[in-house]
Specification:
With 356 residues, the chain is an alpha+beta fold. Helices cover 62% and strands 13% of the residues. It is elongated and about 120 Å long.
Length: 356
């Protein structure tokens, strides 16, 4: 490239320069002095040749130096990217690459790679924790069932009502765990068959309250509803959204002591969003746990939640179902002992229909 550029520049300067200079002399009325004219043109050619040659040498050295520097920086950045990619490929998801600083495109590439690696690292930690939690969830009922069967075989225990109840409880626990895992997997993979219909948000809340009220009364908890005057209409699968609200209501009852209160409400958050909320005056949630509540098997207090009988994937199912409806779900709490609030936000069906 440098040689081609130099040859082109030399050819253009040789052909065009003297002709233009001679034309300038003619226009300046120097044509009558042929010897002076010839000398001036020769001097111009000589000076131009020397200047052009020197300029090309300096430009070539400069261009070569810049090319070498850039090539080394690009090569170093590509090498770092290749090493990091190899580390990620071998399972080391903590690999990162520094921003090369040689252009926006390279910086964007490095940033995208680091983001990808961070997501893979987080997914790997979640997978490890998931396997650990599943193993723990299976270990307890499996161990109980094994112990009781061995006791029956050895004649230590008899197949009385108490033994049958324990065996049945542990079997149901295993069945519930398998069912919950299958449900959240289907929801997160988008394999759910949703039967959508326009439903008043207030009806969803009232139906959920009707189902949960008996359980709340048994726990000594007051359950009420508060629907806004214009709660709006949402386009949902009534059965699936009832599952979400029932799960949130049951979760609130579990963690609200006797004498507490739970409020289910529906109202308009803004012009395009309807909000369904489940608010309780129960145990509350520490701030560090809030971002992780909707992850599979995440428990604020593992021992407490296992006593309550939860499988640890209920909120993960809620999030997957809400997202399948194009909505969002989050949790808020002012701290331990100050209750909590779970909010489901769905698109307003009337607004969506108008835009469509």
């Amino acid at each position: 490239m440098l040689v081609a550029a130099a040859a082109t520049a030399w050819l253009v300067a040789t052909l065009v320069g003297p002709a233009l200079f001679h034309e300038h002399l003619v226009q300046a009325n120097i044509a009558d002095h042929e010897l002076a004219d010839l000398h001036i043109e020769e001097a111009f050619q000589s000076a131009s040749t020397i200047a052009l040659g020197l300029a090309m040498v300096v430009a070539g050295v400069t261009a070569l130096t810049v090319s070498v520097v850039l090539t080394r920086r690009v090569g170093r950045s590509v090498s770092q990217m290749a090493r990091a990619a190899a580390q990620v490929g071998s399972g080391r998801f903590d690999a990162r690459v520094p921003l090369p600083g040689i252009g926006v495109e390279f910086d964007q590439l490095a940033g995208s790679f680091n983001t990808m690696a961070a997501h893979l690292e987080a997914d790997e930690r979640l997978r490890e924790r998931l396997l650990t939690d599943v193993a723990h969830e299976l270990r307890t009922p499996a161990a109980t069932l094994t112990a009781y069967v061995e006791a029956l075989e050895d004649g230590v225990r008899v197949l009385d009502t108490e033994t049958i109840t324990v065996l049945n409880d542990q079997a149901q626990r295993l069945t519930r765990l398998a069912s919950d895992l299958a449900a959240v997997t289907r929801a997160e993979s988008g394999e759910l068959d949703l039967h959508l219909a326009d439903v008043p948000a207030g009806e969803l809340v009232e139906a959920a309250a009707l189902v949960a009220r008996e359980r709340a009364e048994t726990a000594g908890v007051t359950l009420t509803t508060q629907n806004g005057a214009d709660a709006g209409v949402v386009r949902v699968d009534r059965v699936r959204m009832a599952q979400v609200l029932d799960n949130l209501a049951v979760n609130a009852i579990r963690h609200t002591p006797a004498g507490g209160r739970i409020i289910l409400s529906a109202g308009r958050r803004d012009a395009t969003t309807i909000e369904l909320t489940v608010t309780d005056t129960g145990e509350g949630i520490a701030a560090e746990h809030l971002p992780h509540l909707f992850e599979r098997f995440y428990r604020v207090d593992s021992a407490r939640d296992r006593r309550h009988g939860g499988s640890g994937v209920g909120l993960a199912i809620c999030r997957a179902l809400v997202q399948a409806h194009g909505g969002t779900i989050d949790a808020a709490s002012e701290g331990l002992g100050r209750g909590s609030r779970f909010s489901v936000r769905l698109p307003d069906a009337t607004t969506t229909a108008t835009r469509a």
